[in-house]
Amino acid sequence: MRGNQLMGLWGVVLLVLWCSFRKWGVQSFDLDEFVNNKTEEMSSSMAFLESGYGYSISRPLMVGLTLIHGAAAQGAVCLDGTLPGYHIHRGFGSGANSWLIQLEGGGWCNSIRSCVYRKNTRHGSSTHMEKQISFAGILSNKPEENPDFFNWNRIKVRYCDGASFAGEGENKEAQLQFRGQRIWRAAVEDLMSKGMRYADRALLSGCSAGGLGSILHCDEFRDLFSPRTKVKCLADAGLFMDSIDVSGGRTMWNFFAGVVNLQGVAKNLPRSCTNQLDPTSCFFPQNLIANIRTPLFILNAAYDSWQVQASLAPSSADPRGIWHNCRLNYARCSASQIQFLQVFRIRMLNAVRSFAMPQKNGLFINSCFAHCQSERQDTWFADDSPAIGSKGIALAVGDWYFDRSGIKEIDCAYPCDKTCHNLVFK
């Protein structure tokens, strides 16, 4: 058999296996890739889940990196002092004057050690960023993959600060720049100069740490535009909860406290929150979303895989490994462990109760073990994408943005949803 024929045969085999995984609603990942050592566990695990593991039969659109050359004059630099950047694919036709900004995710760094580690990766230095990335899901340029936003100006802003685009400070001894807020401003100012200021429609979106960024900057984004511009925001997998972990501790609160204190985030948090709560509490979306003026859509899995892994049942809170099998595979959770996760889901629903009341806001919380569903083609818009009732994610977001219908979709509790693309770890 010739080499090309052999490669073709292997391609068919891999495609069949891939389709089987999609049919079963399971995405399998190697845990060794998912979690590095304890110091970088929370950031590296998130970076893996946010790394764009979407699927598309057709060849994905590859988009080059644009560095923001005017950023250095504003002190808007990555952790290592290099220029920040973004990837842009211009809109066309009816979408030529519409703009979608997607903030990249990738965890955070909460200590000098973890930030020094991070500055030598693509999430801390443009030197290490890919020169081209694929645009899939909400960034796709194909109407059959992205029916409402395919022909918009679509931009992915790279994440290289480690504080959800909100830090302000530096550590000269470690040669670290905490300039997330300046990076955000430099990026949007550069895009405004390239035509975004004339937008008829605009959507600020983000995945995970970028989803938190879209919440933090939502009203600021609205204020960039004329009142005539239709502006909304979308947070995908950004609803990080201040929850008690399996040991009774507050792993996530302690981690966020490190991020906020190290990177000088407090000064950039909404005063409507910090006038009442401490800065760390105001880094949690549950304490922010009800006071955001701009229409906001929250897309989240009720059993967010990253939060289960790194916030609810991290190895540091589970020294005896009681949760080990459950963390790897939701189907191997005991009845008491499932009950613990059900309580987490209820807390999430309670956190969005006030937020969901205004007509302007949208909600899609599905009962899946997943993380980041807008950038993956298989979860955003495909034949077997996750759905609540008959409504898939892409159509729900589109209906909400274009005011075709109000979207307040909350799934029934696990294990009722058979449409999920659940993440299972080896």
From TrEMBL:
<dbReference type="Pfam" id="PF03283">
    <property type="entry name" value="PAE"/>
</dbReference>
<feature type="signal peptide">
    <location>
        <begin position="1"/>
        <end position="28"/>
    </location>
</feature>
<keyword id="KW-0961">Cell wall biogenesis/degradation</keyword>
<protein>
    <recommendedName>
        <fullName>Pectin acetylesterase</fullName>
        <ecNumber>3.1.1.-</ecNumber>
    </recommendedName>
</protein>
<comment type="function">
    <text>Hydrolyzes acetyl esters in homogalacturonan regions of pectin. In type I primary cell wall, galacturonic acid residues of pectin can be acetylated at the O-2 and O-3 positions. Decreasing the degree of acetylation of pectin gels in vitro alters their physical properties.</text>
</comment>
<keyword id="KW-0134">Cell wall</keyword>
<keyword id="KW-0732">Signal</keyword>
<keyword id="KW-0964">Secreted</keyword>
<dbReference type="GO" id="GO:0016787">
    <property type="term" value="F:hydrolase activity"/>
</dbReference>
<comment type="similarity">
    <text>Belongs to the pectinacetylesterase family.</text>
</comment>
<dbReference type="InterPro" id="IPR004963">
    <property type="entry name" value="PAE/NOTUM"/>
</dbReference>
<keyword id="KW-0378">Hydrolase</keyword>
<dbReference type="GO" id="GO:0071555">
    <property type="term" value="P:cell wall organization"/>
</dbReference>
